[in-house]
Design a protein that fits this description.
Blueprint (H helix, E strand, L loop, with lengths): L2 H14 L3 H17 L3 H28 L20 H8 L9 E5 L6 H14 L4 E5 H13 L3 H9 L3 E7 L6 H14 L4 E6 L13 H13 L1 E5 L5 H15 L7
The chain binds adenosine-5'-diphosphate and magnesium ion.
Length: 262
């Protein structure tokens, strides 16, 4: 078999095996191997590296699309010195994602603007980067989705959907009161993940006030019981980061300083 038909066959084998990146890299890698006198295994290693890197990038992009994160934040973007009530060491430990192994939940409690969503998104991004299926939703979206599902006879499917991700972020619990159907949905999502897979939840209400968001205080109590059983809780206080930068900008303008870092 001539060299060129062997080359064509290798390319079509690679295409048949859906190794498109390797197929594309083949001519350049062959050249590189010839020019640098690489052995067979070195050549093969480099070619497979290209394919593995491309498969990983595709997988990560798929996980990223699926997760629906609302912003590009990572934990590294969080300014811990601006928020001393957040234990940096503990948050960094959570960033290693060991908490996913025993289905520990993370509860971020605090008033608006203190960085709850940013931290939740940072943990979610770490989880995506580690290759875990991750999903972000707000409590209001979860409730709306479950409501539609109930009307369209897809309740069970939707519940399975929320049971699936290795990490589920439920943002903004407590901003809006949840009617009994929404509370039932949230309760079922928490119950089916209980001791199986982690939830990162953010809320503006201290756990003592959870009765207020739900019509039935017993449901709130049962939900909290499961959430807190194996959990790490952050009580974040201090002033809103948005207000802080707003005030810094106002101060700077007053003093005639031209620009303030965001
Ligand atoms: P919350 O969810 O608690 O209302 P967010 O996470 O949405 O607050 O934060 C509000 C804004 O302030 C966002 O733009 C966020 O990036 C920024 N922010 C809050 N805390 C910090 C922090 N410690 N370091 C950097 N940015 C912060
Ligand atoms: Mg938020």
């Amino acid at each position: 078999m001539s060299e060129s038909s062997t080359y064509q066959e290798i390319r079509s084998h690679l295409a048949y095996l859906r190794m498109g990146a390797a197929a594309e890299a083949l001519p350049a890698e062959l050249d590189h191997a010839r020019t640098n006198g690489l052995g067979h295994s070195e050549f093969l290693h480099r070619l497979l590296d290209v394919e593995v890197a491309s498969t990983e990038a595709r997988r990560r992009a798929g996980l990223e699309r699926f997760a629906c994160l609302p912003s590009p934040w990572t934990l590294a973007d969080f300014d811990f010195s601006a928020q001393p009530s957040v234990d940096k060491k503990l948050m960094t430990e959570l960033g290693t994602l060991r908490f996913l192994e025993d289905a520990t939940n993370v509860l971020l409690i605090g008033p608006p603007g203190v960085g709850k969503t940013m931290l939740a998104v940072g943990l979610a991004r770490a989880s995506i980067n580690a290759g875990y299926r991750t999903y972000y939703t707000t409590a209001a979206d979860l409730a709306a989705r479950c409501h539609r599902a109930a009307l369209e006879g897809r309740w069970a499917t939707t519940m399975r959907f929320f049971a699936g991700p290795r990490l589920l972020v439920i943002d903004e619990v407590g901003y809006l009161p949840l009617q009994s159907e929404a509370a039932a949905a949230l309760f079922q999502v928490i119950t089916q993940r209980y001791l199986k897979s982690s939830i990162v939840m953010t809320t503006n209400l201290g756990v003592g006030s959870w009765g207020k968001i739900f019509d039935e205080p017993m449901v709130a109590a049962a939900m909290l019981d499961r959430l807190l059983h194996r959990s790490v809780v952050f009580n974040i206080d201090g002033e809103s980061y948005r207000m802080r930068s707003h005030r810094a900008r106002t101060e700077a303008l007053r003093k005639g300083v031209p620009k303030v870092k965001e």
